[in-house]
Design goal:
This protein is mostly helical and 78 residues long. It has one domain. The chain has three helices and no strands. It is elongated and about 40 Å long.
């Protein structure tokens, strides 16, 4: 069986690219010495989330971005 490329709708491609860029920003900030809380808050801000005192963890930000992508593509009702 030959594997063929699967067509990915535009909204899914944009969401995937955005999620990757948020993670890359987080990893870069951590590499520069930012705390998990500081880097997580900036990553959350880049994803359109509010900053919190406790701070965000990257898996929390990515989880919310995933749910947003499901809603945006119509696979989950708001």
């Amino acid at each position: 069986m030959v594997n063929r490329p699967v067509s990915i709708p535009g909204a899914r491609r944009q969401t995937r690219a955005r999620a990757e860029s948020v993670r890359e920003a987080y990893v870069g900030l951590r590499a520069m010495g930012w705390t998990e809380r500081e880097a997580g808050n900036l990553a959350a801000h880049l994803a359109g989330l509010e900053v919190t005192r406790k701070g965000w963890r990257i898996h929390e930000v990515e989880g919310l971005m995933f749910i947003r992508s499901l809603v945006a593509t119509g696979r989950l009702e708001p």
